[in-house]
Amino acid sequence: MSQLVRAQITALGTYVPPRVLTNSDFEKMVDTNDEWIRTRTGIRERHIIDKGMASSDLAVEAARLALAERNLEGNEIEAIIVATVTPDMLFPATACLVQHKLGIKKAWGFDLSAACSAFVYALQTGAQFVSTGTHRKVLVIGSDVMSSILDYSDRATSILFGDGAGAVIVEPAANHGDGIIDFIHEIDGSGACSLYMPGGGSLHPSTHETVDKRMHYVHQDGQAVFKFAVRKMGEVCERLLERNGARARDIDCFIPHQANQRIIQATAERLGLRAESVIINIDRYGNTTAGTIPLAMATARQEGKLKKGDLVLLASVGAGFTVGATLLRWTI
Ligand code: UT7
To answer: Whole-structure pTM over 0.90, yes or no?
Structure first.
């Protein structure tokens, strides 16, 4: 990929709400058990907001930490991209609410909807503005309050998701070879009805009937999504590595979307990644949709598995279907 300037991540901040919902809490709510959830998904607990909070609140907390790590004033940010499938409201964009709450005066921004791939799509979108030289500091946030669209009487979907957010600052890379190297993104709308929320949009505006039919909740054909994810996540990663002349053992840190531990492990095995390079934190957070990849970046750093100079592979598959993989040299 020819770029005038490469973009790099210069700061990371994450936030999850304090309240924890464990598998044993779910045992009291639906016909499930800790063993089923752990062995089928890898999840032990997830964080859930208290009433009154929204995606913008989680986003603001994560963004504050990213700004503090970089020692930046909010007013130095030129654009804000919020990746989310659970905006505070259908409009205005959550990016506007985040801008106002952070008191950032000069930025423009928008929301990006790509479900579980939204963070990698937003990262690349922010990187393009930096690469072309039009922007020097872009705030990219993934934030989702999945608990706001879950049917807590549906054991097949409610146990999977949690709430959380992560924010990064994207700036020009200081050194040759640093930052975002390449990416592959794909969408496949033939899978649209495998994972979706049917109600509340222009096709099925909210009515008493849509509420009665439980159309404002996540609906998922778990097995169809599982099969697609296992096939696609490995495939795009293989193509990305190959066209950059990288081998699986060159990857220091593999940071995949956290939807199911079995999807992550199948992908890691297919690629032949070193076990210690694979980041898994789904046990603590569940699937936080746009939040998973920055949250996993934070876990990798805490565990000493993500260091300056590391070659990093990000990968995601989500509703849409959306697919993404990013190769980058970590610089912080
Ligand atoms: O980030 C967005 C992308 N989403 C994903 O990547 C999710 C991909 N899909 C999955 O992770 C898995 O398909 C699930 C975890 C959602 C489900 O696992 P599975 O191994 O595919 O289970 P299944 O849907 O085939 O269900 C197996 C059985 C069923 O019972 P019967 O019909 O065999 O009697 C389900 O009713 O497990 C039952 N089941 C449960 N049992 C206890 C479904 N959910 C539960 C539950 N507790 N929570």
So the answer is: yes
